[in-house]
Specification:
heterodimer; A: mainly alpha; ABC transporter involved in vitamin B12 uptake, BtuC; two-stranded antiparallel ribbon; 2 strands; B: alpha/beta; six-stranded mixed sheet; 19 helices; 37% helix; binds adenosine-5'-triphosphate; binds magnesium ion
Chain lengths: 325, 510
């Protein structure tokens, strides 16, 4: 009895080891390094500083979007509308700039798209009680078509001369903004999820909404905020992309929705809710980008990209599954 | 035998065979024999060498503390889990493998199928057999009427998801009985049943064992039931068999508890001298009754689950159409939502731990501290919560490797302890407990009684619903009874504070 109590207290007084908590994340990080070295073995240029910068730049919008999707997935939901919101944000921002408005109000209007669609998603899921898949399928379709309607399908250049600063400026000297945003958002979200009570609520809701509700967790508010956050992040990712390529297109986000969900799943989140981490989502997004980059560099027909990504998801999920056995 | 078996030609033939074998043969064939069974999950060794055998016609109690490995062994016998060492052998007069039916500890009623389908579904003989609703209903109705004729008559087309916990339990048992199995493995089947239902179940089990010679394995933490039903017992402890198929009459309660490795029953002195304050804290107002409740009262709710559920849902902020309300200074008349209840200092332990209780994917520390975070409006997760959680886990003797494991790796009784830990020692005004010791082993039950009494002594009102009348009589200061139709039949008078009076009031006199 006594020894049992002692062994329990010993186990309880040490915190969780980094290795234990971030097992999945470490495995993915290793996989990414292996992938990069593998590509580097064929194409030495893959390991150049220039290519690292390429990968980071290409990954940034996906990283930010994945963080948003992660929150929804944690609650056991899904957000299919992020790609469309991404596109629509870019179109609206560019359109408003074309009316002669400055960067800041145009970008704010772009974020407004995210706010509106996030709120619609959130309300339909919580207040009306529709299934997240159905709700976000609707907003995916609506936002996707609005992205064509606002400019009649034309792509739009960016009017404001200082808008590029959002992506490539340096708020902190020496670090490009897109890197800063990724790191800051990921760190803040990870901290909130681990160290704040409301962060734990996302997991609680995803684990058992019934049980959470009876415990006094504000289930509806938690769900609602997840959808708003997800759309806002998609919007922000849209702004970043437009700020980089200085051009807005109606189809810009078309492929991103599935990639964001894939990133979250690779990062160890369960689509049934209740598990996942911000760091995992970031690594998942990086992994997808590294694969795309490698496929390009090696010169494989880009039609293969989807297959390679699919296999990567399978491997990641299998690793996750067996590392928890 | 029951008419279900007479009409089913297959079952009829099987039964004849079995009866014959049980009577004729001098050496009845062992149905299941487990030798030196070993099992580990990851680094945790659960079974280190368990021996266990089930003979025909035997009702065999499988005992052990929470986390001893009872459910694990049952799932190995049914083939749900693989094992790492030892042997599991089957014997049968009918073939090489007896039909084994099981009632799992955590219920598995399919929510989108009707009650009839839930039972009939195990009877499909092949994939391509056309599904016959009539046949499913026949099977279901015959099996159900063995233990609950009322349910069989009224509820065959209700959806599984609409069943209450005890109805779901009956459905599961009926499903197992309907298979005509030679071996029945029942993992805490009575945990959700009322006294009357338990009586009926036991009568059926005893008849089956005597007349058809099937072997029954019965897991329970209720000593009274074990003695009433079982012939022999096997006790496992620390992953090994410590008592192997001994006649249960040979062992005293104290010996059984000792073999299970649990602390002997300490007579806590708080039992005797409990002084209650005269201050009426709150009045429960229901249909035709007003019950003043004093500070620190332990109020028992007895009777079938439908009755107390109205009162309980008012207390926990899920009022709906409930006719109950509260009256008292500073008390909301009906909390509007669970969060309002919690903020008002009303804690709640659900009776449905699998669906409404544990947060299965969250570490134990989050499960245990969620209520405290909400009640005390904690914004940040501080390091000190680890020690806090550790203390609670230790107080209740929850068997865990670390506070970071997830509840799905815990045994049923240990999960139950987590639910209680949520509210333990918090300065609350009221705690509502639904069957709080469900699945908790005998030693810890005592511990929990003492801890709850301590909470009451500190002024918390305890509302305790239980189907175990003995438990209520032992721990409660007052008992409110509900009859089988869910009507409140009023508080139990003090001069008739006994089991018979309670059985009368709840309409469950045998
Ligand atoms: N999937 C799993 N992973 C890790 N450990 C597990 C897993 N399943 C069960 N265990 C451990 O195995 C032990 C035995 O569990 P089991 O459910 O068999 O106990 P039990 O005897 O049925 O207890 P109870 O009376 O509480 O139902 C427990 O300590 C539990 O933590
Ligand atoms: Mg068990």
């Amino acid at each position: 009895m006594n020894t049992e109590a002692q062994s329990i207290s010993r186990a309880l007084n040490i915190g969780p080891s980094i290795l234990g908590t971030y097992r999945t994340e470490i495995a993915i990080a290793i996989a990414i390094v292996v992938l990069m070295l593998g590509v580097g073995a064929f194409i030495p240029a893959a390991l150049s500083a220039g290519n690292f910068a390429n990968i980071l730049q290409a990954a940034a919008p996906l990283v930010i979007m994945s963080l948003g999707v992660l929150l929804v997935v944690l609650t056991g939901g899904i957000d299919l509308s992020v790609g469309s919101v991404f596109s629509l944000t870019g179109m609206v921002t560019a359109l408003i700039m074309s009316w002669g408005w400055g960067s800041v109000p145009s970008a704010a209007a772009g974020l407004g798209v995210g706010l509106i669609f996030g709120s619609i998603n959130g309300l339909l899921v919580t207040a009306v009680g529709l299934a997240p898949f159905v709700v976000t399928l609707i907003t995916y379709a609506v936002a996707g078509s609005l992205a064509f309607i606002v400019t009649n399908g034309r792509s739009m250049g960016i009017g404001a001369p200082d808008f590029w600063l959002l992506n490539s400026g340096q708020l902190i000297p020496g670090i490009a903004n897109y890197v800063l945003f990724c790191v800051a958002f990921a760190a803040l979200l990870e901290l909130a999820l681990r160290k704040m009570t409301f962060g734990r609520w996302f997991y609680a809701v995803g684990s058992s909404a019934n049980a959470a509700h009876l415990l006094g967790v504000p289930v509806k508010r938690t769900r609602f905020s997840a959808y708003v956050f997800s759309s806002l992040m998609a919007s922000f990712a849209g702004l970043l992309t437009v700020s980089y390529i200085l051009n807005a297109e109606s189809t810009a986000g078309a492929s991103l929705m599935l990639q964001a969900i894939a990133a979250v799943v690779i990062g160890g989140a369960s689509l049934f809710g209740g598990t996942g981490s911000a760091i995992g989502a970031v690594l998942g997004a990086l992994m997808i980008t590294v694969i795309q980059n490698g496929v390009n560099l090696i010169g494989i027909n880009s039609f293969w990209q989807g297959s390679v990504t699919g296999i990567a998801i399978l491997i990641a999920v299998l690793i996750d599954r067996f590392s928890h056995k | 035998m029951s008419d279900w078996e007479e009409r089913d030609p297959d079952a009829g033939r099987r039964n004849e065979n079995c009866t014959a074998s049980a009577n004729e043969s001098n050496r009845p064939q062992t149905l299941v024999s487990v030798r030196g069974l070993q099992k580990q999950f990851g680094a945790t060794v659960v079974l280190k060498g368990v021996d266990f055998a089930v003979q025909p016609g035997q009702i065999h109690a499988l005992l052990g503390g929470n986390g001893a490995g009872k459910s694990t062994m049952i799932r190995i016998i049914t083939g749900d889990l693989t094992y790492d060492g030892g042997t599991v052998e089957f014997g049968s007069k009918r073939g090489d493998r007896p039909v084994v039916a099981v009632v799992h500890q955590e219920l598995a009623v399919l929510p989108h199928l009707t009650l009839a389908e839930n039972i009939g579904i195990v009877h499909a003989r092949s994939f391509i057999e056309p599904y016959s609703a009539r046949r499913a209903e026949n099977i279901a109705s015959k099996a159900l009427s063995l233990i609950d004729p009322h349910l069989a008559a009224t509820s065959l087309s209700r959806m599984g998801g609409d069943l209450t916990l005890h109805e779901a339990q009956i459905v599961e048992i009926a499903r197992a009985l309907s298979t005509g199995a030679e071996v029945l493995l029942l993992d805490e089947p009575t945990a959700n049943l009322t006294v009357a239902e338990t009586e009926r179940l036991f009568a059926v089990l005893q008849r089956l064992a005597q007349e058809t010679g099937i072997g029954i394995v019965f897991v329970s933490h209720r000593m009274k039931e074990i003695r009433q039903l079982c012939d022999v017992c096997t006790i496992i402890r620390d992953g090994r068999t410590v008592v192997n198929a001994r006649p249960i009459a040979d062992l005293t309660d104290a010996e059984i508890v000792r073999h299970m490795g649990q602390p002997a029953h300490r007579n806590s002195n708080s039992e005797a001298a409990r002084t209650r304050s005269d201050h009426v804290e709150v009045t429960l107002v229901g249909p035709g009754i007003e019950l003043p409740v004093h500070l620190g009262t332990i109020l028992g709710l007895a009777g079938s689950p439908d009755g107390p559920s109205g009162l309980i849902s008012t207390l926990i902020g899920k009022a709906g159409t409930s006719q109950w309300s509260l009256k008292g200074e500073g008390w909301p008349s009906r909390p509007t939502a669970p969060i309002a209840s919690v903020r008002n200092g009303i804690g709640y332990v659900t009776g449905d731990r699998a669906h409404k209780g544990v947060l299965a994917q969250l570490p134990i520390i989050d499960n245990v501290l969620a209520s405290r975070r909400i009640r005390e409006k904690r914004r940040y997760i501080s390091r000190s919560e680890r020690a806090e959680c550790g203390d609670l886990v230790r107080t209740l003797g929850v068997k865990v490797d670390s506070i970071w494991s997830v509840p799905s790796t815990l045994s049923g009784g240990n999960q139950q302890k987590l639910l209680i830990a949520r509210w333990l020692g918090m300065p609350l005004r009221m705690v509502v407990l639904e069957e709080p010791t469900r699945g908790v082993d005998i030693g810890t039950k005592r511990e929990i009684y003492a801890l709850i009494r301590k909470m009451a002594d500190s002024g918390t009102i305890i509302v305790w619903w239980s189907t175990e009348n003995v438990e209520l009589l032992e721990i409660c200061d007052e008992i409110l009874a509900f009859d089988t139709d869910g009507r409140c039949t009023g508080p139990l008078a003090h001069e008739t504070y006994n089991e018979d009076a309670l059985a009368d009031l709840t309409g469950m006199a045998a």
